[in-house]
Amino acid sequence: MVTDRAFLLLDDIQVRYGDAIAVDRIDLAINAGEFVALLGPSGCGKTTLLRVIAGFIRANGGAVMLDGVDISTLSPEDRRIGMVFQNYALFPHMTVAENIAYGLRSHRAPKALIASKVQEMLEVVRMAGFDKRLPRALSGGQQQRVALARALAISPRLLLLDEPLGALDKNLREEMQAELLRIQRELGITTIMVTHDQEEAMSMADRIAILNRGQVVQFGTATEIYDAPSTAFVSGFVGNSTFLDGLLGRGDGDQWTLRTSGGVELRFLSAGPCRRAGAARIALRPEQMELCDDGVAAVVRYARPMGPSTRVGVSLEDGTELQLSAPRDHGADSLPAGARVRVRIKPQAHCPVFLP
């Protein structure tokens, strides 16, 4: 998605708590209608950044620009931003309709508008007929829908989601992911979601901002982040990677080699960012490795069926431990511990390489 001007612009945002830096000079430009996920380990600053955007936390420096206007000093209620919390924060003594109408009443909207908007939101989140129920009579997924309807009722310019699906079980979580995405696409509302779930971020977001220690270390599509991580941290955090240190060398054509200290040599196509001979670190994902007849010698440590594939752990001759993902119909799940095999990096796999 590309627009002439970013709809939401975070310019040099800084948040400090005494000597501790929670958000460290973050710049981020988000386009209108985009769904962006903030992903990172606990304590990386993603929820703090979301609350700065909402106005619940005042940044120590920088500006929040929404549709070309600096909203940094506005109170939360004056920003016209909708927010859904992990615990939904529904008022237990209010009915579904009263919860949805809360923001509109706070803004002193006319009664007729409130009534029509409540019904409209109930239709949007597929909760028509539930208007007179109390939150305690709803399932977790239904409460989440009501919280979303309440956030959307004020016709927000921006929707913020703070781990909104974290309290749901796996099946319901996947169902609500689809519902959230449907509603976001139908309304075309710019949305930012904080999550610690990598699969959730990669399946829902147009772009993902990876945060670490208060900084955005990569901002891109799920494909860009997974296939071409900009740092070793991103490679290790997103997905499952094993890191090998060794000497990087140029092979034939587009081929590169990595020779470990134990003398094992692996051949592969490089995805960068390191593209010079010398000491380097390669990141290998299980799906980039395969069993073969002409690879390097290895000994099987375990073979664990995982649905349609088998995760095989092997040790190379120099003691290096790797994982590979093999199709179950190839008999990989029957490999006994101690079996001698040969493995290689798949010829078409592009592997990230970093400075050591």
UniProtKB/TrEMBL annotation:
GO terms for cellular component: ATP-binding cassette (ABC) transporter complex. InterPro entries: AAA+_ATPase, ABC_SmlMolc_Importer, ABC_transporter-like_ATP-bd, ABC_transporter-like_CS, Mo/tungstate-bd_C_term_dom, P-loop_NTPase, Transp-assoc_OB_typ2. The lineage of its organism: Bacteria, Pseudomonadati, Pseudomonadota, Betaproteobacteria, Burkholderiales. This is ABC transporter ATP-binding protein. GO terms for biological process: putrescine transport. The keyword ATP-binding applies. It comes from Achromobacter aloeverae. PROSITE patterns: ABC_TRANSPORTER_1 (PS00211), ABC_TRANSPORTER_2 (PS50893). Pfam families: ABC_tran, TOBE_2. Keywords: ATP-binding, Cell membrane, Membrane, Nucleotide-binding, Transport. Signal peptide: none annotated. GO terms for molecular function: ATP binding; ATP hydrolysis activity; transmembrane transporter activity. Residues 8-238 form the ABC transporter domain. PANTHER family: SPERMIDINE/PUTRESCINE IMPORT ATP-BINDING PROTEIN POTA, SPERMIDINE_PUTRESCINE IMPORT ATP-BINDING PROTEIN POTA.
